[in-house]
Amino acid sequence: NNERWELQFKGAGKTPYSRTADGRKVLRSSVREFLCSEAIFYLGIPTTRAGTCVTSDDYVIRDIFYDGNPKRERCT
Which residue ranges does UniProt annotate as crossing the membrane (predicted)? Predict the structure, then answer.
């Protein structure tokens, strides 16, 4: 078949689109994006879908609740 697939790594580091941030993604945002893309797909709306989530040994500091109390989170 002549099907074409495109693979992308999201949250793997700095890109021209990561602005001044580190470009890393954490598990909670990866799970949220996965669930939303699956919901959109099953609603019949064309969307991208995730094949897998890879967790690394790296950690980043994120202020989860934007309350001035940043915590270490594992990158995904």
Answer: none
